[in-house]
Write a structure and sequence with these properties.
It is found in: Membrane. The protein is mainly α. It is 55% helix and 3% strand.
């Protein structure tokens, strides 16, 4: 039976039918795995943003004729440097990062409070370690939490 409300307990199924915990040791190891994956998610997100910042910095400046500002939807990105290998690498990194984020969301949807706490604390610790540094990096990115 799947829980539809938060519950405390060591018996939980996380993501797959084969990932079931039935003892305290397996439960704590599963919580540790969720915690580490959440920290790794923040690491990948930091690498992706850093990679994007580096690739944006290496691009040539846009044309100064002002046409690009007036008609942003009519500008084609199919030509020139936009198909550089760094763009493909960024897209692959974004896909991996998004997949891990969705898997973390699905793990939380087990409605086990321990899994929820492990993922949220892992995201916070990962942010503190990898993204909460003293550097001021300004990069306009998608504000959507799932992107």
């Amino acid at each position: 039976m799947m829980h539809m409300t938060f519950y405390w307990g060591r018996k939980v199924t996380i993501l797959f039918d084969s990932w079931k915990t039935d003892s305290w040791i397996s439960y704590f190891l599963s919580l540790l795995a969720c915690f580490l994956v959440a920290v790794f998610y923040q690491y990948l997100e930091e690498r992706r943003l850093r990679f994007k910042l580096l690739s944006v910095a290496s691009k040539r400046p846009p044309p100064s004729d002002g046409a690009a500002l007036g008609t942003p939807l009519l500008i084609s990105k199919l030509g020139g440097r936009n198909w550089a290998p760094s763009r493909f690498a960024g897209a692959i990194l974004f896909g991996i990062d998004s997949a891990i984020g969705y898997l973390l969301m699905l793990a939380i949807m087990s409605f086990n409070a321990g899994v929820f706490i492990a993922v949220v604390v892992g995201l916070g610790v990962g942010y503190l370690i990898f993204r909460g540094g003293g550097e001021d990096v300004v990069l306009v990115d998608n504000p959507c939490a799932c992107a």
